[in-house]
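ingest -> validate -> predict -> emit
validate: passed (alphabet ok, no gaps, 215 aa)
predict: started
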Amino acid sequence: MTLLYLVRHADHDWIGRGIAGRMDTSLNDTGRAQAERLGRWFARQRAAGQRASGLWASPLPRTQQTAEPIARALDLPIQTADALVEVEFGAWTGRDFPDLDADPAWRQWNGARSLARAPGGETTLEVQARMVGFLNRLCADDPDGIHVLVSHGDAIRAALAYYLGVSIDLFLRIEVSPASMSVLAIDGWTPKVLRLNQTLDDGTLDDDGSMAPAS
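emit:
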């Protein structure tokens, strides 16, 4: 069985404001603090005997910066994986949400992800295909490993929807918060989502290195 820790990057100034997309956006002060706390959590996991096999991150600065404290904690290099990168939002990149709300294409994008494409960008199904393809290859190559993957909200959400059997049109019902962690267990049988959207800020991840009981 392969364990996959899917970590969304920590906070930055575009969250809640608009589409950062693939811009070179860095973490803000809150995000840097969140990343350090994630690093301390993984350090406690390692001290408890759970040794990770690999650490992977999207190439964008905000994911690399989130991964840095985790890399120190796990004593692992950050391996950059393009498959984990943010959605290509094309012409929507850098636009604020109030501005986008008046765009009919944006409303269609959020209402029917299976049918819509970001202008000059990707469909959510394309994002899901690259994410799931990468995760499945990782599991095939290391069937008993533990891997930490630092990615982006919609990319993680698309992967979770696949393993949960949720339609891509409903995937916005899956919350993926900044600096959150979701855990997959994948073997030759049915994949399992062991944890979903747990964070240090809401108490579902504890500073002592434990996880709250699954409900």
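The first helix runs from residue 29 to 47.
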